[in-house]
């Protein structure tokens, strides 16, 4: 973390501390009203709420060269009552990966569902930061795979790619596609080494798939690259699908994957299969 970044982190913490009142976090009012010279919370109050030492928190606000673990940064976010966007900003200032934030049930989930439904006949799906399936449209379920067919705790893109035989047989070039997914997943796990869900998924995949076990040890890391995949579908026939990945600004942890029919013939064949 650079000196300028530490200064920005310190300024952000001071600003957020000043806006939170003791009553907002369940602290009792001052016994002598009017004597509090600090707007918002005192440093010792933030330190106590976050479960860290006053000295360490003071140094953090002073921009000193100290390390902040993900657990401590998340505790500070809770103590300062940061919203999702502010929490992401705090983590980025501390040099950490964004927190994993699954969409909330209700209107947010329905909004995401409307988004992928609007993309029909192109198969579309949204994954969270662990590559778990969040929402998908009917075209994805019928042309690629229906995540409902997977066990609830295994509704995950990486698990599907390496363990679902139907998907593997349908893909004309399964190996490069699987390697590409693995390389993106490997980078995510590397940025979140303490994530228990990811660790459990890696352990399960290591046991379930020889290819995953072999390729994982090679530590492949690669960002998404534009690609077209070939699918042989029992109803739609031979399809070419151009892959796009987009992130939602309001929740960058969510990844929208759009599989656009590469040509008019592909689009017509998908539409006919869905009719």
Briefly note the structural class of the backbone.
alpha+beta
Inertia-based shape: elongated
Portion in helices = 40-55%
User: Tell me about the biggest sheet?
Assistant: 5 strands, antiparallel
Give the N-to-C terminal Cα separation. Answer: 55 Å
Describe the structure.
- The protein is of the alpha+beta class and 275 residues long.
- The protein has helices at residues 3-19, 43-50, 54-61, 70-79, 84-93, 107-117, 138-144, 157-163, 165-170, 174-191, 196-208, 210-217, 264-274, and strands spanning 124-127, 133-136, 227-233, 237-248, 251-261.
- Strands 2-1-5-4-3 form a five-stranded antiparallel sheet.
- Helix 2 (43-50) packs across helix 4 and helix 8 (157-163) runs antiparallel to helix 10.
- The longest helix is centred in the middle third of the chain and has 18 residues, at 174-191.
Features:
275 residues; alpha+beta; 5 strands
How are the elements arranged and paired?
Elements (H helix, E strand, L loop, with lengths): L2 H17 L23 H8 L3 H8 L8 H10 L4 H10 L13 H11 L6 E4 L5 E4 L1 H7 L12 H7 L1 H6 L3 H18 L4 H13 L1 H8 L9 E7 L3 E12 L2 E11 L2 H11 L1
Antiparallel strand pairs: 1-2, 1-5, 3-4, 4-5
Helix pairs in contact: 2-3, 2-4, 4-5, 8-10, 11-12
């Amino acid at each position: 973390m650079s000196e300028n970044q530490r200064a920005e982190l310190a300024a952000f913490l001071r600003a957020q501390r000043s806006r939170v009142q003791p009553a907002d976090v369940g602290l009792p009012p001052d016994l002598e009203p009017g004597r509090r010279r600090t707007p918002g919370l005192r440093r010792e109050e933030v330190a106590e709420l976050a479960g860290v030492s006053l000295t360490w928190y003071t140094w953090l606000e002073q921009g000193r060269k100290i390390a902040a673990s993900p657990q401590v940064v998340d505790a500070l976010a809770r103590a300062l009552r940061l919203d999702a966007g502010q929490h992401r900003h705090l983590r980025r200032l501390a040099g950490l990966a964004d927190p994993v934030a699954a969409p909330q049930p209700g209107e947010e989930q329905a909004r995401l569902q409307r988004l992928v439904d609007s993309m029909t006949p192109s198969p579309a799906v949204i994954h969270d930061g662990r590559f778990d399936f969040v929402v998908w449209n009917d075209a994805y379920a019928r042309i690629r795979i229906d995540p409902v067919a997977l066990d609830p705790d295994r509704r995950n893109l990486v698990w599907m790619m390496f363990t679902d035989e139907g998907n593997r047989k349908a893909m004309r070039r399964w190996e490069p596609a699987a390697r590409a997914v693995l390389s993106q997943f490997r980078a995510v796990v590397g940025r979140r080494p303490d994530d228990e869900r990811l660790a459990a998924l890696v352990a399960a995949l290591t046991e379930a798939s020889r290819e995953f076990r072999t390729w994982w040890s090679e530590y492949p890391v690669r960002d998404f690259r534009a690609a077209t995949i070939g699918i042989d579908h029992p109803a739609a026939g031979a399809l070419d699908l151009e892959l796009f990945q987009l992130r939602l600004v309001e929740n960058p942890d969510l990844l929208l994957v759009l599989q656009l029919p590469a040509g008019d013939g592909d689009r017509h064949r998908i539409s006919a299969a869905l009719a």
